[in-house]
Specification:
single chain, 5-stranded mixed β-sheet, 4-stranded mixed β-sheet, 4 helices
């Protein structure tokens, strides 16, 4: 999400740090809800992901473990049910982890542009590369939900505003770097796996947004490709 109220340009120094994918992000815990005794359609898969005994039956301990995961990532309803939304988040995490340090293995993000920020909507991952050299990431991101999809294609960062506030949604967008109309990289205080997604921006943790701010500048390329699950 985002909008444009004024333009400015800030150029910061570029570093060459590489950060691993971190799957330990979380939002503030949701208010406690009752635990369901019903096994969900993805009970075994969810049990395996959480390191629980894989028997396909819902126990009190199973429910509490699933509920804790749902609370951490803002998944509702948070009643410990192993349904499609909860399993979809876990399945995405597994796929993200499997990428390792080769996010552009298939060569989808251009390697002939120099420094470029890549966004894989399908895997909800972003990274910065310079040619074929990985500079930072990959890191999980949160892109546009159904109806507010993050637009695909080759773009350029054209405006940066470190303390931006959206006049459309009246929410802060720290470390905003706009690359397509009102769509920008910026930090949020949510889990990167919080469904259903943003209003079009590429949401990041504060740590990632600050690093992107330090590594990118106006005129740098951004390439967005793929399709977010559920859009």
């Amino acid at each position: 999400m985002g909008d444009i109220r004024r333009r400015g340009a800030v150029v910061l120094g570029v570093t060459g740090l590489v950060a691993p994918l971190t799957l330990a992000l979380g939002a503030a815990p949701a208010q406690a809800a009752s635990c369901t005794t019903q096994a969900g359609p993805y009970q075994k898969q969810v049990e395996k992901f959480l390191g629980r005994p894989v028997d396909g039956r819902q126990s009190t301990a199973d429910c509490k473990a699933v509920q804790a995961f749902q609370n951490k990532h803002g998944i509702t309803p948070n009643i410990g049910y192993a349904g499609p939304v909860t399993w979809g988040v876990m399945d995405l995490m597994n796929k993200q982890k499997a990428v390792g340090n080769k996010p552009n293995k298939a060569g989808a993000c251009p390697t002939n542009k120099g420094r470029i920020a890549c966004v894989n909507l399908t895997l909800q991952l972003s990274w910065i590369q310079d040619g074929s050299r990985l500079v930072y990431g990959p890191v999980p991101v949160r892109t546009g939900r159904d109806g507010y999809e993050t637009r695909t294609g080759l773009k350029k960062i054209y405006w940066r505003h470190i303390n931006h506030v959206s006049t459309i949604y009246n929410v802060p967008m720290p470390y905003s770097q706009f690359f397509d109309g009102g769509q920008a990289f910026h930090s949020v205080g949510l889990s990167m796996w919080n469904p259903p997604g943003s209003h079009g921006c590429v949401n990041m943790t504060s740590t990632t947004a600050k690093k992107y701010w330090s590594l990118l500048k106006n005129g740098d390329d951004v390439f967005v490709y793929g399709r977010k699950p559920g859009t």
